[in-house]
Design a protein that fits this description.
heterodimer, A: about 180 residues, alpha/beta, five-stranded mixed beta sheet, two-stranded parallel sheet, about 30% helix, B: about 425 residues, alpha+beta, Cytochrome-c3 Hydrogenase, chain B, 2 domains, five-stranded antiparallel beta sheet, 16 helices, about 15% strand
């Protein structure tokens, strides 16, 4: 896996849909130092599905997880892929980030491209309150069904604190 | 591949068996529930519901300084109690640009591989128990004790070793402890062939595990399976090989698949046993390499905790840390802000989280009596199967216990052996 080649194909495929790209190289090994790469891409929400489709079509990616990062007015979602597995030093991480405003919290599903993304999409849906358009199963996964609290949203911290307080009270109740 | 069959979804009719199993959580070791839809004995649908006791580790972590987060990460999992700290320390070190001395990298690797040995043996024992081979369970767990004793002698603890710290390790492996490690490795080398023979050349184990809980290569790839579950399906994926880190970057580590044992990978329970047992042998070789080449030098790049906290507080950036834990890839993402002690974002991904969806195709078409061994085959750290709630399609409702499921499994073993 050549990270620069990957970047170049992304630039061609997405054009203006690629807002930022960078490769961070890290030195590993103590006796015979080698280099591994983390690729970071930023795309608008509209280009997210195309970006993942490009990755799937050319690079057989593995989705490790989707992470969320509450920035205040918006939430950044990082799709942490790895690609190039199967050979020694062949792999690089490829994180595709998209930032979504809290006023319009929507993301397209990528389960049509990679069915294994569903667990992570369901988790982001319930923990951040983001609507995943087209997700095959939109029920809560880790939180109780019917729960409308989004614990990882920093602006809704009061709701989560109330929930935690209630749980502590319930768990420490005198039988 | 039929996507319909792998979505965690069942029909709306009442013909389902509800199977609460715990305590295990795909990410954080908690209870989990399976709902099976059955046609007679055959499983035709399965729904998986985790999250019964979500502890909110990441939420807690974002309210603590990074040293506290490290100890919290160590408590995500009792079995993988070095795997999460290894991934977290790498993520923070990548974000903050902290170097790790070579000797510390080797010590981290040694503890990580000792953990793999005891974890795989733990799993093999559980698998034997599910099939009704308690003699094999006791043999395997007796053998496992040697690794646990060694971990205690080297780190002071059987679990939660508190070894990694940002920029190094907290304890050395001096010569006398290295000697104990070599002795333990010799013990395992002498036993490994016997263990492989006991598991892989036993007719009843083979009859209960061959073709049971299979996962194709395509399914493993599209469902983003990780670790031995993916490798049992022939997916040649292992972080230690693909993107080496720590001491793995200095040695040749190859992802082990059933082909290394001369069998075509099908991803069934048998292949899962093959991969894990061979990986015990691989871990022995890795530890030997590390002991032979253990570099001299410092253990920590920033030995004083106040100085380390201060350096971490000044750091700004984001980082990814990955470690091939016994069950597969552990992944940590962290973002640090200058002047802020707590991480701004922290995401933890454990291997069972990746393998959650792989359970669905593994269960489909199988029998009730195979539920315990298939559930165990992804090694979800399942400590006990509490009780099972069965609702058949005629609306009959019954609650079954763990003992009943195990009895069904053992009766099947006797049945297939005639």
């Amino acid at each position: 896996m050549n990270p620069q080649e990957l970047l170049s194909t992304f630039r061609t495929a997405l054009g203006r849909g690629l807002l930022e790209d960078r490769v961070v190289e890290r030195r590993v090994g103590t006796v015979t130092p080698s280099v591994v790469s983390d690729i970071w891409l930023v795309v608008p929400r509209e280009a997210l599905h195309d970006a993942v489709a490009h990755l799937c079509a050319r690079y057989a990616p593995h989705l490790s997880v989707i992470s969320g990062d509450d920035l205040g007015e918006a939430i950044a979602f990082n799709y942490h892929f790895t690609t190039g597995w199967g050979e020694r030093f062949g792999e690089a991480t490829c994180t595709i980030r998209t930032v979504v405003s809290k006023d319009d919290l929507r993301l397209p599903t990528i389960t049509d491209l990679l069915p294994g993304a569903q667990t992570s999409e369901r988790e982001k849906r319930e923990f951040y309150g983001v609507e995943i358009e087209g997700i095959p199963d939109a029920r809560n996964l880790f939180l109780p069904q019917g729960s409308t609290i989004h614990p990882w949203r920093k602006d809704l911290e009061g709701e989560t604190a109330k929930l935690v307080k209630r749980m502590v009270k319930w768990e420490t109740r005198d039988e | 591949m039929n996507n319909e069959s792998i979505h965690l979804h069942i029909g709306t009719d009442a013909a389902c068996y509800t199977v609460p199993i715990g305590p295990v959580h795909p990410a954080l070791k908690e209870p989990i529930e399976f709902s099976f839809r059955l046609d007679g004995e055959r499983i035709v649908g399965v729904e998986i519901t985790p999250g019964y006791a979500h502890r909110g580790i990441e939420y807690m972590g974002m309210k603590r300084n990074l040293i506290q987060v490290l100890y919290l990460a160590e408590r995500i999992c009792g079995i993988c109690s070095i795997s999460h700290p290894l991934a977290l320390t790498q993520a923070v070190e990548n974000a903050a640009g902290i170097e790790v001395p070579p000797r510390a990298q080797y010590i981290r690797t040694i503890i990580g591989e000792l953990e793999r040995i005891h974890s795989h043996l733990l799993w093999a024992g559980v698998g034997a128990h599910e099939l009704g081979f308690d003699t094999l369970l006791h043999l395997t767990w007796n053998v496992r004790e040697k690794a646990m004793d060694l971990l205690e002698q080297v780190t002071g603890n059987r679990v939660d070793y508190a070894i990694p710290i940002f920029g190094g390790v907290r304890r050395d492996i001096p010569n006398e402890k290295a000697h104990l490690a070599r002795e333990a490795l010799g013990y395992y080398k002498g036993l490994l062939d016997r263990m492989i023979d006991a598991y892989l050349h036993d007719k009843s184990v083979e009859m209960r595990t061959r073709g049971v809980g299979a996962l194709t290569y395509d399914q493993a790839v599209s469902l983003c399976a990780a670790g031995p579950v993916a490798r049992a399906s022939g997916v040649c994926k292992d972080v230690r090989q693909d993107m080496p880190y720590l001491a793995y970057a200095d040695m040749e580590v190859r992802a082990i698949t059933p082909e290394d044992y001369g069998v075509k990978p099908t991803g069934d329970v048998f292949d899962n046993i093959v991969v894990r047992l061979l990986e015990v042998g691989q871990s022995i070789e890795i530890i030997e390499f590390c002991l032979d080449h253990l570099p001299a030098g410092e253990l920590m790049s920033i030995p004083k905790i106040p100085a380390l906290l201060s350096a971490l507080k000044k750091a700004e950036g984001e980082g990814i840390g990955r470690h091939e834990a016994p069950r597969g890839e552990v992944f940590h993402y962290i973002r640090l802000g200058e002047g802020i002690e707590e991480p701004l974002a922290w995401k933890v991904k454990a291997p069972t989280y990746s393998n959650l969806m792989s359970w669905v195709p593994k269960f489909l078409g199988q029998e009730i009596a195979d539920i315990p061994i298939i559930a165990a085959s992804i090694d979800p750290c399942m400590c006990c199967m509490d009780r099972v709630h069965l609702v058949d399609k005629r609306g009959t409702d019954s609650v079954e216990t763990k003992e009943v499921l195990i009895r069904l499994s053992r009766e099947k073993t006797r049945r297939v052996l005639g």
